[in-house]
Amino acid sequence: MKKLLFVACLLALFSCEKNQESAQVKEPVTAEAKQPAGRVLQYGVYTLLRGGEVIDDPKTSTGKSLTKPVITRDRTTERIPLIKGKYMAYQYRLSNLDGRMVKLRRVLKHPEFHLPDGKVSNGSNFTINKKLERGEVFAYDAYAFNEDYEMVEGDWTFQIWYDDKKLIEQTFTTYFPDAEELAQLGKFSSGNKNQQP
After folding, report:
1. Is the separation of the CB atoms in 51 and 57 below 8 Å?
2. How far is Cα 109 from Cα 104, in angstroms, rounded to an integer?
3. Are strands 137-144 and 86-95 parallel, antiparallel or unpaired?
4. By the 8 A CB rule, do 64 and 51 touch?
5. Domain spans of the chain?
6. Rounded to whole angstroms, how far apart are CA atoms 172 and 87?
7. Is the distance from CB of 54 to CB of 64 less than 8 angstroms?
8. Is 59 left (phi over 0), alpha (psi -120 to 50) or beta?
9. Cα 31 from chain centre
10. What is the pTM for the complete model shown?
C-alpha cells in the first residue's frame, strides 16, 4: 500500500509540474497579445472641405500648419500628384494602449526642399498627444501642398512611434501629373482645375 501511495504522489507531482510548465508556455502568448499595435485604415489623395487658420508651427517641415482641417478622400492611392491645395493623408488606429492620453512621436521624412529663408528641410520629428478611447486612438495625419517649394517628387514617409516602437509607417510617392491626368484630377480639385504644377 505504501508503494501505491508513493507512486500516486509522484504522479500528482509530475502532473503539477507539467501544468506549471504549460502555464509558463502560455504566458508569453498572452503578453504578446497586449502589446501596443497600429494599422493604417485608409490613405490617399484628399481635398480640404474647410479649415481654420494657418498658424506658425515650428515643429513642422515648413514652420506652418492649418488648425482643424476637415478633409475628404478623393481616391485611394500611394502615388500622389503634386497639385497645390491637395493633401496626402492617412487614417490610423492604435490599440492596446493604457491611460487617458498617450504621448506619441510623429516622424515625416521627405525629399529635400528649400524654405524661403534659405533653410533646407527634409522632414520633421515632434511629439503629439492623443486622447485614448477604450485603449485606442483613431486619428488622421496629413500633409498639404500649399507652396511652390513643397512641390518635390519622391518618397514621403510618415511614422507614428510609441516609446521606442514604431506602430505606423505609411509611404507616399509624389510626382508631377501630365496634362491629361491633371484634367482628370480637376474634377476633384475644388477650384484648382487650371492649376499647373
Report:
1. no
2. 16
3. antiparallel
4. no
5. 1-31, 37-188
6. 11
7. yes
8. alpha
9. 24
10. 0.74
167: exposed, middle or buried (C-beta count within 10 Å: 0-12, 13-18, 19+)? Answer: buried
What are phi and psi for residue 53, nearest 5 degrees?
Answer: -115, 155
pLDDT digits (tens, 9 = 90+) for 129-154: 999 999 999 999 999 999 999 999 99
Q: Three cell numbers at 140?
A: 488622421
Length reported for the chain:
197
Give the amino acid at 110.
H
- Rounded to an integer, what distance in angstroms lies between the CA atom of residue 29 and that of residue 15? 22
Query: What's the CATH fold of domain 37-188?
Result: Immunoglobulin-like (2.60.40)
DSSP character at residue 61: S
Q: How far apart are CA 32 and CA 115, in angstroms?
A: 44
Cell numbers standing for residue 168: 505606423
Question: Residue 6 is which amino acid?
Answer: F
- At 138 the pLDDT is 96
Across the range 39-51, mean pLDDT stands at 92
Nearest CA-CA partner of 61 in 104, 116, 129: 116
- 3-state SS class at 91: strand
What is the residue type of 177?
P
Q: In 3D, which of 96, 90, 76, 86 has the Cα closest to residue 171?
A: 90
